[in-house]
Write a structure and sequence with these properties.
With about 160 residues, this protein is an alpha+beta fold. It folds into 2 domains: about 60 residues, 2,3-Dihydroxybiphenyl 1,2-Dioxygenase, domain 1, CATH 3.10.180; about 60 residues, 2,3-Dihydroxybiphenyl 1,2-Dioxygenase, domain 1. Helices cover about 15% and strands about 30% of the residues. It has a 4-stranded mixed beta sheet. It has a 4-stranded mixed beta sheet with strand order 7-10-9-8, covered by helices on one side. β5 and β6 form a beta hairpin. The longest helix is centred in the N-terminal third of the chain and has 11 residues. The chain is globular, with a radius of gyration of 19 Å. The termini are far apart. About 15% of the residues are buried. It holds the Pfam family Glyoxalase. GO terms for molecular function: lactoylglutathione lyase activity; metal ion binding. Keywords: Metal-binding. This is VOC family protein.
Length: about 160
């Protein structure tokens, strides 16, 4: 691919000599980075409500230590090693205050949970009055519930079918 940029857009041109990234080369999602308006509320939400492990001290990547120390970044990790980076953007406002109005290029972030823990997760969200978009829903691929983080980003907790 060759990139041509103009003031209006970026155009990707086909260049067959480059080939493609070999299937299976992209092993897993390494991290997801979210902009957050209220770092304290987001740290509480992801750490205390969703139960993700917040990286502290020596666990923080060296490239982010200064930003973490300044309170501008927080890092969490899921049990499978996927990192969730929160970047503090206190002046960030979505174009529409209604979280159902899509305004980013991302649609949602889904967390997987064991089927026997799904109902408990739904109850925890309710106990903390987390805004629910929809669900729980049941599909052939499993069950899911869609809800919003403190910045209105759509999240899902899902499980495989029993």
């Amino acid at each position: 691919m060759v990139v041509q940029q103009s003031s209006a857009s970026t155009v990707w041109l086909n260049d067959s000599t480059l080939g493609a990234i070999a299937p299976g080369s992209l092993r897993r999602v390494h991290h997801v980075a979210l902009n957050v308006k209220d770092m304290q509320a987001s740290r509480h939400f992801y750490g205390q409500i969703l139960g993700l492990h917040e990286l502290m001290g020596e666990e923080v990547p060296s490239t982010l230590k200064d930003l973490v120390a300044a309170g501008k970044v927080a890092n969490f990790v899921t049990p499978d090693g996927t990192v969730l980076d929160l970047f503090w953007e206190p002046t960030l406002f979505p174009p529409d205050p209604d979280p159902k109005q899509q305004f980013t290029r991302a649609n949602h972030l889904a967390f997987d949970i064991a089927p026997d823990l799904f109902d408990h997760a739904v109850a925890v969200l309710g106990q903390h009055q987390v805004p629910i978009d929809h669900g729980p829903v049941s599909r052939p691929t499993g069950r899911g519930i869609y809800f919003y983080d403190p910045d209105g980003f759509l999240l899902e907790i899902r499980c495989d079918p029993v």
